[in-house]
Amino acid sequence: NGIISGQAIQQTAGGDTVAGLNVSLEAFVDFQSVASFTGTVDTDGKFLFDTLATGPGIIYMASVTSQGISYSSPILKLDPQTTTVTTTVNIFGQTEDASGIMIDRAHWILDSQPGALVVGEIFELSNTLDRTFIGTRVDGIDQPVTIALAVPPGAEDINFENGALGERFLQKGNVIYDTTPLVPGKAAR
Q1: φ, ψ at 152 (rounded to 5°)
Q2: pLDDT recorded at residue 16
Q3: pLDDT band at 56 (very low <50, low <70, confident <90, very high)
Q4: CA–CA distance from 86 to each of 8, 33, 36, 160, 178 (Å)?
Q5: What does the H/E/C string look like for 48-103?
Q6: What's the CA gap between 84 and 122, in Å, rounded?
Q7: CA 142 to CA 188: how far, in whole Å?
Q8: How many C-beta neighbours within 10 Å does residue 129 have?
Q9: Structure confidence at residue 174 (pLDDT)
């Protein structure tokens, strides 16, 4: 008997209309997807999903896709006492302007192991613009890139928390590029 309603809101002045955009709702148990629902937003950007489970351990996330980029709600939770939740999904225009991208925080973790030095890097990135940074073109990479990370020559076993080398992350020489757009906001990634 659960209901999740919401509204997709265009946050960029002069940005595209939200009417008719695709919306999806994913249900998760223990961070594993267990159900998916789809629809479209109305002329005001509103959407509604009903007859949802309100059992313990189930969480939901709504996503709206605009110009090929998926924007998500916060994590939503229903329970027997809270059977209705309302959310918003902020949508943004797009830009190739990287002037608003900044590293807010960077951490290096070094671990000496027999025959190797293990280096971990953690970056917190923000986008201060009112548009999603979709990236710029780099010679030798067949899609726009958003972030460039230099790696030392001879680096081995390069891994990423949210993606794989050769898929989301592409390497040319000693630079690895992230191809995922960066939405506006502090600590956006």
Answers
A1: -70, 150
A2: 92
A3: confident
A4: 11, 21, 18, 34, 33
A5: EEEEECCCCCEEEEEEEEECCEEEECCCEECCCCCCEEEEEEEECEEECCCCCEEE
A6: 37
A7: 25
A8: 20
A9: 93
Determine the average pLDDT of the residues in 26-52.
Answer: 96
Residues 6+ apart with CB under 8 A from 93: 10, 12, 14, 15, 16, 130, 131, 132
> What distance in Å separates the CA atoms of residue 58 and residue 188, rounded to the nearest whole number?
25
Q: Map residue 1 onto helix, strand or coil.
A: coil
Name the residue with tokens 């390497």. 171
Using CA atoms, how far apart are residues 135 and 178, in angstroms rounded to an integer? 9
Whether the per-residue pLDDT at 49 is higher than 90: the answer is yes
DSSP string for 159-186: -BTTB-BTTTEEEETTEEEE-S-B-SBT
Tokens matching residue 67: 């110009």
Mean pLDDT of 46-59: 94
Residues paired with residue 62 on neighbouring β-strands, in sequence order: 25
The burial class, CB within 10 Å (0-12 / 13-18 / 19+), for 134 is buried
Q: In this predicted model, what pLDDT tens digit does every residue of 136-176 receive, in sequence order? A: 999 999 999 999 999 998 888 899 988 899 999 999 999 99
Give dist(CA 96, CA 133) in Å, integer.
6
Compute φ and ψ for 128, nearest 5 degrees: -85, 0
Mean residue pLDDT across the chain: 94
